[in-house]
């Protein structure tokens, strides 16, 4: 066939994600361990699922009253409402004043895709986006593809081994966009908060929060997102990607909400109407299963309580693992203080190792973790904790004095 | 509060879709009928669902062996494979030669969103898109938002009351993109096909097929998409949006595939790799439920057979409704030939009324249908067929001589 291909100029795209996981999978060593799974693992190394979810899946499948019609473009309204109440608390100022709203989004990136499209059109002056380094790969790509300049930042101070929100003040130019994850881990004082807020306002920085694991930090749903209320009370307008897949264990049904907080209801309706237009072009009608499971649980007090308890159990287990790791390192006499392990909240925290130590673990011990040593602590269990802590000890000893 | 809103310049977006449905809903007349639902209706006016689907939903919810982990970026591989086999037939040339592939997409617009993004980047010369008028609203918006010039066309010849594929030849400028639905309804002769193909090649027109109801035209899955094989055999490269929600009755789980046919495997892999990159930014991991239900049915011969039979039953019912409408109009002595009703395949077909007649039905009879008189015949049932046919008769008589 002599026809020239239409696709002649299309090169093979570079793979962006999963190189660490790929190397892990190709490793034939039986001792190999992967410490960077995105989702929480059970003690048996399976993805964690809230006990209430399988029950709800069954109940939904057996319900003859459900209809399987298309959802409207803005998605499942009861899902959006229940999720916003979860995020802000039922009686929050923005809910009472009717100036918070949300659009049902698809997948882990959906809310960022939608929000970025909006910002590209309606905030032409904001073309630089700062993204926390741990999320640069999935979210950065979204903004990059649309022509934004993407820079990364980290709250983690690898010298002081603690979180530091001052990076926000130092790095951000005027009119930039900031994608912010769990800022409550930074433990700011009242006056530090005030300085931060003033600086953000002064620089006209647009905040795009990323709440993908509400409740997984402290085990307390309200406490985890309390800082959002503070921003609301200070008159900030912002976007927030609220993802609920991780906290229910419905990873296969990536579902979320692009939350919009505006100064008043009129502005909110304008923003939502533009978002709806974009959603229509993106996927028209979002799939329902994830939203249906979550809504059924959130709207039933008994099931909601069961879910909260399962989440609490997960967080207690994370704390226990961290305590054990710290204790084992202490018993091994590993140089350094390991308090930073238990000082950090949530499933994903920094081990506080340097690059040489990480390399040592990967190459000599077949323990796979990212270069910044931010690991998923739920990947550590009774079967592998001794091997992991002994290996960390070896890594630290072998690289002593190399800094 | 004196702060100026970030969203100050954002106007309220115009609503694009559903104005007919909205007017219908606001109509308080008890006789009102809506003839333009997107999905097939049962004789009781409920959305049609294949009998095999509820069973499969239950089976999936009860299966303890399933894992709920994230799907990879390219989606569920077994779903893509099973769907491609359905589209092309197991032993088709493109499958054997390994030059067809697909990406699991989300919602009814997902495949067009993904395909349009690709074409925007990799076919910079193709900036005009022709879309069949019945699908202009959902798909046109996708291309329009990305800066393409969108024009509409229709195979329906409202004078001759038949389908005419020659519009493709007349209207299309060089290097344009054509979104094509069910071309097999045009009943082209071998020589007309040959002329059409030569002209498309000569004008370097890129084809983007829309297969959203395979099997619903003739009741025969292979026959409905046979024309795709003809394009393949003639050395065409193309995209195809394959949507399976309508043919299974899983409207709430909008799921599909962006199908790519390339001249060889190497080209295919390049295109798929670029699509994967775009998918990552769009939704990262697609939701699984719709794909899981469909794959479980397609990969089980007994269930597949049950699904095919349910589809056949649906198509037979559509034909029966059309026959009845034609017969009732004949008995009423309605002027004109109504053969075009039964000459057209599928649930959605043209009634062949002019604008005055449509207006008459909407305003005087509370029967809601689009201006081009393309209706969903499954909205007609034993309860409303007499009222509908009598009203059509009145409409035709009352506007006689107005043309």
From TrEMBL, chains A, B:
Keywords: Aminotransferase, Cytoplasm, Pyridoxal phosphate, Transferase. Its EC number is 2.6.1.1. One of its GO terms (biological process) is aspartate biosynthetic process. GO terms for cellular component: cytosol. Residues 50-392 form the Aminotransferase class I/classII large domain. It is found in: Cytoplasm. InterPro entries: Aminotransferase_I/II_large, Asp_trans, PyrdxlP-dep_Trfase, PyrdxlP-dep_Trfase_major, PyrdxlP-dep_Trfase_small. Homodimer. Pfam families: Aminotran_1_2. GO terms for molecular function: L-aspartate:2-oxoglutarate aminotransferase activity; pyridoxal phosphate binding. The keyword Zinc-finger does not apply. The keyword Cytoplasm applies. Belongs to the class-I pyridoxal-phosphate-dependent aminotransferase family. It comes from Neovison vison. Its cofactor is pyridoxal 5'-phosphate. This is Putative aspartate aminotransferase, cytoplasmic 2. It catalyses: L-aspartate + 2-oxoglutarate = oxaloacetate + L-glutamate. Its main location: cytoplasm.
């Amino acid at each position: 066939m002599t026809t020239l291909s239409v696709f002649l100029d299309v090169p093979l795209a570079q793979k962006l994600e999963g190189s660490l996981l790929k190397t892990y999978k190709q490793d034939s060593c039986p001792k190999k361990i992967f410490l960077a799974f995105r989702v929480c693992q059970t003690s048996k190394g399976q993805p964690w699922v809230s006990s209430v979810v399988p029950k709800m899946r069954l109940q939904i499948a057996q319900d003859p009253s459900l209809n399987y019609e298309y959802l409207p473009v803005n998605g499942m309204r009861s899902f959006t409402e229940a999720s916003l109440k979860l995020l802000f608390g039922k009686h929050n100022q923005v809910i009472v004043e009717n100036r918070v709203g949300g659009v049902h989004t698809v997948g882990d990136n959906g809310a960022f895709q939608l929000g970025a499209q909006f910002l590209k059109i309606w905030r032409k002056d904001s073309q630089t986006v700062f993204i926390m380094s741990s999320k640069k790969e999935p979210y950065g790509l979204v903004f990059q593809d649309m022509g934004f300049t993407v820079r990364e930042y980290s709250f983690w101070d690898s010298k002081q081994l603690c979180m530091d929100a001052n990076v926000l003040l130092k790095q951000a130019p005027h009119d930039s966009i900031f994608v912010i994850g769990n800022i409550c881990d930074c433990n700011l004082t009242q006056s530090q908060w005030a300085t931060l807020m003033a600086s953000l306002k002064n620089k006209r920085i647009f905040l795009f929060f990323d709440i993908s694991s509400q409740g997984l930090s402290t085990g307390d749903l309200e406490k985890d997102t309390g800082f959002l209320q503070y921003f609301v009370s200070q008159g900030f307008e912002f976007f927030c990607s609220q993802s609920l897949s991780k906290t229910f264990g419905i990873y296969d049904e990536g579902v979320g909400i692009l939350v919009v907080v505006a100064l008043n209801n009129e502005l909110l309706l304008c923003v939502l109407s533009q978002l709806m237009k974009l959603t229509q072009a993106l996927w028209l009608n979002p799939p329902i299963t994830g939203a249906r499971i979550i809504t059924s649980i959130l709207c039933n007090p008994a099931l909601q309580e069961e879910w909260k308890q399962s989440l609490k159990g997960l967080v207690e287990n994370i704390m226990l693992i961290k305590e054990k790791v710290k204790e084992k390192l202490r018993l091994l006499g590993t140089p350094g203080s390991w308090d930073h392990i238990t000082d950090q909240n949530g499933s994903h925290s920094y081990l506080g190792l340097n690059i040489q130590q990480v390399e040592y673990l990967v190459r000599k011990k077949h323990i796979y973790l990212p270069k910044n040593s931010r690991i998923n602590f739920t990947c550590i269990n009774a079967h592998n904790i001794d091997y992991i802590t002994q290996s960390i000890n070896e890594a630290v000893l072998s690289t002593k004095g190399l800094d």
